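Reading a protein record of the kind used here takes only a little practice. Each token is a code from a learned vocabulary of local backbone shapes. With that in mind, consider the following protein and its fold in token form:
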Amino acid sequence: MVFSSRVFIQTCVFFAFFWLATITSASTTILPSTQALSLVIKEITKETLQPLVPANASPHDFSLKPSHIRRIQKAQLVVWLGPELEPYLAKVMSRIPHHKQFIINQKGLPLAYGLHPWTNPEYLMNGMLELSQHMGTPWDSQAWRQQMTLLKTQIQSHQKRLLKNQQGYLVYHDGIDGFESYFGLEHLASFTNSDDQPPGAKGMAAIAQLAKEQQVACVLTDHETKPKLIDAVIGPEVERIQIDILATHSTSLVSYINRLGQAVLDCGHSIKQ
């Protein structure tokens, strides 16, 4: 009788560990397409997941390899930006069952190739709410809203100081359009409209004139920036501030958005208040 009880207990323990292992395995088979989406998932599940696209690679010019396709096929849930923003995924995802993929809804935000909606806190919050509902995992947005409200107040105050000084900032390319839209910002000009388009001569002349008139407080540079081009157009004197559009160096969504915000706050930091 004692032997039977022991066997029964051992059997129960075995199935308990098997069940927990299954849950853990299931939770780690969520596949985010990009690093920013990996941070979205981490906010909900507390897990750090390896994205399909390497963190330092742009999703615009990414090419799938057989190993990437195998990861997609093995995943229980692929979280991605949709065919308009990630056309390289459209064909393979069309063969993945709908219940095994999740696209964050734009909810009225602009949707087109080349845009970067993941820099928009509203887009990220919508994604976290929708994904948490989809996964049946509760997520409280209150702390996120408070952080973004505080950052918005700081950025808008700094923006007023820039305008008072008749200055603004340049961007290398329109990579933080979502961020600017949310915080009510507008850059003076960009060297290129997209990271896969070369700068135009007319635009370069306009930027050079802005710098000559001392209207440029800084240039926000990113992973696509060509420093020699900037030097040739406006010289090395104008301050450069690096921004992390792809979330390469961020470990959480709050730190990611705060990093983008701090870049703007650092622009023209010598301006007297």
